[in-house]
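Suppose you are handed only these lines of text.
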Amino acid sequence: MSTEISPDPFAANLARWEEQVDIHVGSDFYRVKEFRAGGTSLDPLVLSEIGDVRGKRLLHLQCHFGLDSLSLARLGAEITGLDFSPKAIAAARKLAEETGVAARFVEARVDEAAAKAGPGYDIVFTSWGVLMWLPDLDVWAKNIAECLAPGGFFYIAEGHPMLWTLDDEGTTVAENFRIVRSYFLEGPQQWENAHDYAEPSITLRHFKSNEWQHTLGEVVTALAAAGLRIEFLHEHDKLVWPGVPSLEKSGPYYMAPDGAPRLPLSYSLKARKD
Ligand SMILES: C[S@@+](CC[C@H](N)C(=O)[O-])C[C@H]1O[C@@H](n2cnc3c(N)ncnc32)[C@H](O)[C@@H]1O
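From them, the structure of the protein bound to S-adenosylmethionine can be written out as follows.
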């Protein structure tokens, strides 16, 4: 990792995400086959906390190739998915068409969400692996607040910033649960990692990325400063991907094995626009 700043910090990220779309659509991790057969890609935590979405106008930020967006549409939401990757948006539209699920997909960066996806949403939703791609959470929160209709809410489920401090290169519990990075880090951090989390056998050609580590305090404060009222902030000892190698699979989640410290691995938050 280095702290060298490239002229356009989004360019490397976009190239990486563009390469990952086709890999992810075909991966076991995303279980597109199960979705095509009528299943949902949403995990039980998100399903229970987001509640009844029937008839709700729902904006899904950083929707990737639309799997969660289309799962929410199947539950009755009127969906707009937004992502900055043209390939992801094309794949999302294709999947919607092939499965006969109605949804709108918009190609845009998160900092353009209000301008390009428009206002009036009952719910703005985003989840799992999103905030590290965003340099400025004040801009993020302002866009969310502008997209929401009065009375609407924002919901996020995300990896806990505590996770980023752990040693993800070792394999044992002792290695993985020691702190090797600061909780407070200025971004962007420039990473070089050719490993694809969904298809570990593949070596990515676009292996560079620029990422920003945001603390939990930053998330809450940015949303509050944008005028949203926090309804809950829940911390969880589980995660939908194996954040460090020694986590063990438990249903749809990964959790620390017996004997390892119970740390917050993820969090979920709901905030309302009054
Ligand atoms: C890990 S996915 C998160 C979505 C979902 N949890 C999933 O796994 O399908 C991250 C998504 O963020 C998108 N992304 C990254 N930076 C972005 C930005 N600045 N604006 C909009 N989308 C962005 C990527 O294209 C990618 O589809």
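What can we learn from it? The chain has one domain: 9-272. Residues 121 and 148 are 5 Å apart (CA to CA).
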